[in-house]
Amino acid sequence: MGLNGAGKTTIVKLMCGLYDPTEGEIFLNGINVKNFNREEYFKLFSAVFQDIFPIAASVSENVAGSIEISKEKLSDCMKKAGIYDKINSLPEKENTKLVRGIYDDSLELSGGETQKLALAKALYKNAPILLLDEPTAALDPIAEQEMYMNYLDFSKERTCVFISHRLASTRFCDKIMLIENGEIAELGTHPELMLKGGKYAELFNIQSSYYNDENVNKEADCL
Amino acid sequence: MKKKNADDMTFKEKIIILKRCVKFINSADRGRILRDILSLLPDIISTFSGIFLASLVIDGVVNAKPAEELIFSAVIICGINLIVSIMRNIINAKYNRHDFLYNENTKRKITEKILNIDYVKAEDTETLNSAQAAKNYLYGNNVSIFAVSGDIKWMFEGVITVITGIILIAPTIFSKSESTDGIMGFIGSPWGALTVFLIIIPLILFRSKFIDSEQSKKMGEVFSDKEVLQADRIQNHFRNYALNNYRSGKDVRIYDESELVLKKYNENAKINYSKWTKFFWKINLKNGEGCFVTLLINILLYGFAVARAVGGAMTIGEIVGVVMYFNQITQGINGISDYFSQMLVAAPFCKKVFDFLEIPDEKYKGTLPTEKRDDNEYEFEFSHVYFKYPGTENYVLKDINLKWKIGEKMALVGRNGCGKSTLVKLLCRLYDPTEGTITLNGIDIKKYKYEDYMALFSVVFQDSKIFSFSMAENVAADIEYDSEQVTDCVIRAGLGERLKTMENGIETIMYKDSDENGVEISGGEMQKLCLARAVYKGAPFIVLDEPTAALDPISEYDIYTKFNGIVGTRTAIYISHRLSSCRFCDEITVMNNGEIVERGSHDALLEKGGYYMNLWNAQAEYYKTVSSRTKNEKGA
Questions:
Q1: Does the pLDDT at position A219 exceed 50?
Q2: For chain B, where do the domains classified as CATH 1.20.1560.10 start and end?
Q3: Does residue B212 sit in helix, strand or coil?
Q4: Which residue of A51, A78, B185, B329 is surrounded by the most CB atoms within 10 Å?
């Protein structure tokens, strides 16, 4: 986590090989990633970025890509992402075409639904490393809670990087990295960082204060 | 909009459309048609002078004229050609960029229409299709308005060629032959010439009109074929996805989407290809028939010329001349007929451009100006409002009754799809309610002048976007702005620190689409910029739809605490999934499935222990104090 513009998404982009570092090196299992074939390297990652662009194809093609689509796997991933019910309720189900205006009957998904679809896509690829950039930004509280509950399940036996401003999500993570101005400012588990009383603790307290504090000062800081 | 087949337009209607095309073309590129016609002259002069020279030289050689004389004539004619060539190149160089001008001006008309059209229509598939069709038929294919300007040009070329040809051919036709007897004599005489031409000309017309009208009809069918249109849209979509939008590149690489994208693109390219191939096969077969007719015409023509030469009425040079002039005339007639019928085919398609540009604006019927109130005393009310999106069955809003106290900050919460954003869209008059009324200070909002009404709102939507213009232009939503005020709003929205890192300050271009020196801004920074834009407008009613979704905790805190400072005494609606934000609002309205289920202050609703409390707890549980959390964790 970190403030806006601190460099979180940039680290993720570097990690999955979209950019090369200007200086320094990135290692995977001790080997400099430059030594790997870039396309093979991409196969290791599933990512959900902040800007999502569905393509004008069916839901199943959006989630699974052009390789043979396994219906079971597709349903499973959609369930984990929380979008199965919505897709199943449509007349054409997973064959529904997306992106309004291209086909006569294509559908435009809402912001939250699009985010869930992107998550299903990441899960379907089943890559060993899962990168999630603000995956609950557009989700309502109940959907967000469902996602957290499923998170433990789909992050099993995988390396996950979870970027979020919702500090509640940190409770599921083994390690928390705080980025500030392009540098790692703090690194540790939630209890460790809270104990440290540094920037992370400050952020957490600010956010949780609304949920815990009975007397919220509404007239604070008028400009 | 009624759907018309290409056959449904009468000849008169088509001519009217073509006249409109001429006006349209001239408005986009002044004097284009006149210029086009004038630009033909060099080539016509060149062609005919070439034939004249050929004729002259052949006769000169046959009649053993002195070489100097021939060379002199040749030099003159070549001189004419040189001058003409230079003229042609100058004209081309000067006017090539006018194609670009035409393109830009016409596309702008379409864009302006799209930007100003009633919002409810902007989301409607029929309107989108109409817009797509309008874009298709501006430029770039045989039935576009641009093509019509070309057709007009080439049709005139035909006319000028025919006239010139007839003038040049007449002397040789009407010269008398030496022998006057029998068939030879007849052919040699002007009457004979006339007869031959009266046979040949109908053959020419038969060939061009008959075959071309079939061609035109078939071409029209392919252009309006639904599958072809859809294939075009799909190809455009993937081309944009893969080539124009650099942000999609991340997904393309990580998910190795190139195979899928290419497959979809090629599938649809094939559809286009197969439809057009079928069309061209049919046309070429018909054209094959036309070749026989052409053969017949040529036989008659050559036969005539030879007969006259034998009869002594024409010299060899004149034969060559007659045949070549006649070819020019034939081509001219074909040209007139071909391009005219092509224009007729294009007419129904060009009409689609005008159909789109003429879609009526229904919102602009209100005439009441909104009173300028310095005290910002605007009272809005929803009375029994029901709403469903056009063309759908389900009501998205049901029996909404809501009144805003002036200066009140109201939070609107609920699950995805419950109708929060829709309610806001209705308030802003992007849509009209299906049933019920929305009033401002007691008067139905439909009665107000649209621009005035819009001026009352500053909105940040969930999917608000920043353009690739300068930061200041984005904030002011204008090319002219008050720099101080822009800077002030940017700082108030929390972008002060980021602004300091930008070399060009508020003049910095956002994103890298239009300027390589543009800066890439994060999702959260973009949201802040949208907020700055809303603040800059200074409207009395401010609506924020998920304004902190992408913001970090500090920025989020800033927005909450400074919210009052940002909003001031204005009325505000605040939609958010971050229920923490509700605590800053005077009242919370909770929606579920298009209905208002609960209303009250945060504390009152928690006490009630209903739907709101469930939403609150779902989020709050993760933030409970450490001790209670670790207890939960052990159990999880």
A1: no
A2: 6-357
A3: helix
A4: A78
Whether the complex's predicted ipTM is more than 0.90 is answered with: no
By C-alpha distance, which of B398, B513, B419, B400 is closest to B465? Answer: B513
pLDDT at A75 over 90: yes
Asked if A102 and B253 come within 8 Å (Cβ–Cβ), the reply is no
SS3 A27: strand
What is the per-residue pLDDT for B232?
83
For residue B422, the chain A residue with the least C-alpha distance is: A110
pLDDT digits (tens, 9 = 90+) for B259-294: 889 999 999 999 989 998 988 888 788 777 778 888
CATH number of the domain enclosing A61: 3.40.50.300
Tell me whether residue A69 is in a domain. Answer: yes
Q: Are residues A221 and B561 in contact, defined by beta-carbon separation less than 8 angstroms?
A: yes
- Burial class (CB within 10 angstroms; exposed 0-12, middle 13-18, buried 19+) of A100: middle
Taking CA–CA distances from A63, the nearest residue in chain B reads: B255
Contact A100, A107 (CB under 8 A): yes
Q: Which residue has the tokens 């190149």?
A: B89
Average pLDDT, stretch A180-186?
90
Q: Is residue A70 part of a domain?
A: yes
Chain A contact for B394, CB < 8 A? no
Name the amino acid, one letter, at A72: E
Which residues in chain B have Cβ-Cβ distances shorter than 8 Å to A152? Answer: 636
Q: Residue A45: enclosing H or E segment and its boundaries?
A: strand A45-48
Q: Give me the long-range contacts of B238-244 (CB less than 8 A, separation at least 24).
A: B238/A55, B238/A56, B238/B264, B238/B265, B239/B265, B241/A53, B241/A55
Per-residue pLDDT at B208: 67
Give the integer Cα–Cα distance in Å for B6 and B81. 44
**Location of structure tokens 């958010």:** B576
Residue range(s) in chain B whose domain bears CATH number 3.40.50.300: 407-432+447-466+521-635
Quote the tokens at residue B436: 């019920």
Nearest to A2 among B254, B256, B552 (CB): B552
Dist CA B543 CA B555 (whole Å): 18
Total CB pairs under 8 A between chain A and B: 199
Mutation choice for A interface testing from B623, B624, B626, B629 by most A CBs within 10 A = B623
Neighbours of B197 (CB within 10 A): 18
Domain count within chain A: 1
H/E stretch holding A11 reads helix A8-15
| Mean per-residue pLDDT over chain B, rounded | 82
pLDDT in tens, B159-182: 999 999 888 888 877 666 555 566
Cβ of A144 within 8 Å of Cβ of B498? The answer is no
Q: Decide if pLDDT at B31 tops 80.
A: yes
- The B residues from 480 to 519 touching A (CB cutoff 8 Å) are 492, 498
Q: B5 pLDDT exceeds 60?
A: no
- Name the residue among B562, B498, B513, B508 with its Cα closest to residue B535: B562
Domain membership flag for residue A72: yes
Is pTM, for the whole model, over 0.90? no
Q: Look at residues B97, B127, B99, B101 and name the one whose alpha carbon lies nearest to residue B114.
A: B127
> Which residue range(s) make up the domain with A80?
50-163
| A215 pLDDT more than 60 | no
| CATH number given to B407-432+447-466+521-635 | 3.40.50.300
Is A20 contained in some domain? no
Tens-digit pLDDT profile for residues B81-111:
899 889 888 888 887 788 888 888 998 999 9
B6-357 belongs to which CATH class? mainly alpha
